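Quick start: what a row looks like.
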Amino acid sequence: MKTVLVTSTAESTGKTAVALALAKLAAERGLSVGYMKPKGTRLQSNVGKTLDEDPMLARELLGLDAEMHDLEPVVYSPTFVEQAIRGREDPDDLREGVRESFETLAEGKDLMVIEGGGELTTGGIVDLTDADVAELLDAEVLLLSRYERGGDVDEVLAAADDIGDRLLGVLFNAVPDGSFDDLETEVTPFLEGRGVPVLGVVPREQALAGVTVAELADELSAEQLTDAPADAFVERFLVGAMSGDSALRHLRRTKDAALITGGDRPDLQRVALEAPGVKCLILTGGFRPPGAIVGAAEERGVPVLLVQSDTLTTIERAEDVVRSGRTRDAETVARMRDLLHDHADVAAIVGGEAGGEE
């Protein structure tokens, strides 16, 4: 049996989509596949019953007959972390629990796909970093990374050093078009010369990189004040706490962004409507903007969303939506399956015979 652990240099690099897409590709190649996420990190509650949606999605998409407590033996919540720091969690007991769950899930399988938690170092307080888990479960490690500039290679090399001989290779995910040439002609030969195989370069797709304004409005329970189309994608957020002049200079340099500001800041709202990279305004505190702002937004086709929550709460909720929410679903996994099929060395990662849909 082969075991592959999917980890990353940072959060939000697509571990769930890649892990499940690899499992689907392996099944197409005739392999019996299992899945596990030892540390549940994507929680909606700090305590109590596990609410990590990744193992639940895996169980559904892969047709697994497995208990949640095996798929996710450690609920890595803030409460758990606090208890571990106080010495109330035994690392040896936790490791044994992970190993026992793995053995249960791996019985009769040709391949086990292990999804890392958060990032490579998550779990260090109980000796369960992804590198520790790989050692515990005798897994090879697929390292995910983003790439936009040469300095990103530093993180890849540092992670490769932490993983050691278990490193299977690195997969660059969501790579912008402008970075492909550097990756192929300079970065890949450099990394392979340092003993780090590059197993894929997956292009960035906007539908997988952000959320639409409509999805954002739904998640924030926002009221849309304009009839402007809400199908534009948002990938980042700007906080409106600056003067109009400095805001305009900053806003003109951004793209695919939403401005989050108080509804009582018409000066900033007016400036934001002049910036082509601002795809929507999110006004907080329940303050309705002047009619002139709504009219200008309508004219420019910019949606204006009104929320009742304060600015800080809205920022946290919005960033969580973009980071980990609406794009984790069956459609995302299907699209990632196609991307990996076309842009990654699937055979080197999962093994098995080529087959399935082309």
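That is the whole record. The domain at 2-205+327-350 is CATH 3.40.50.300 (Rossmann fold). The mean pLDDT is 89.
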